[in-house]
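ok trying this again, last paste got cut off
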Amino acid sequence: MLRCTYIVLIHNNESNIAKLVDSLKKIVGNFRKEFIFVDDGSTDNSLNLLKAEVNDIPRTTIITQEMQGPSISVNKAISLATGDYIHFVEGDEILQIDSTSVLIDSCLKLGTEVAIGPGAKSMSTIDKLAGVCKIIQNPINEILSGKISAIRNVGRSGSVVHSKLLDKIGKADSSIYTQNMSLSLRCAKYSKFALLEENVTTIIDRQGNSDNKFSSYNNLKSIYNFSKENPEIFSNLTSELLMTLSRESLGRSDKINYAMKSLARKYIKSTSLSNVLTLYKLELDKLFY
């Protein structure tokens, strides 16, 4: 029988703990379940509520720590996981009852080691997911284009990854606070992605005011680090890297400047990967400092 480990990141989610755990208890499928919760420095009553709610669930581990961020939290949990597949969950959501089964079946059906399903921002519990999915043949290109946002969210809500792939890639880049773009790129190096059309999770109480500057920094840093580690992949993708840089940059003049450069055929042909990464480094320094 297959085994699935649920890695659940908790940070100040006390209002949703009961609903989240209840949804995990109701998950159905022909696999054995294991749960690893990481409480990343919650300052509310999340940890106490979590301990009470999971008290009767077998094969459950709770990791507690001072706040270190999603990447370090995920990597700690992956090190303890024994499942054939890892289903990533966040503390502000609930899962559809057959979400894991549909995601794993999508991997097996399409021959991938990664499956991703989108999330809804309102309650939309249904009896059964249809499991309609498609294969993403070139996930690195899709990640860079940003046209399908879910492709960038491996390691976040509604994503399942085979544990052997996580071992192969060396987990997430722990030098980056958020793990999703980093894990997406690392997984995309070795596997195509299965993408579900239906929502597999419902987001309950996510804070709406995200830090766009911090998000851009993490995205660009993930791409920058991965490009430096894998020049053989990106030597022919300099135009895509420039376009991604133009979209992620916050200053309007910078966006126009980078977009013009990326669209200029002569510039693209004559620009090396090292020159493009120099532009990335300049933008990272501006975003962070």
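PB: full thing came through this time. The mean pLDDT is 88.
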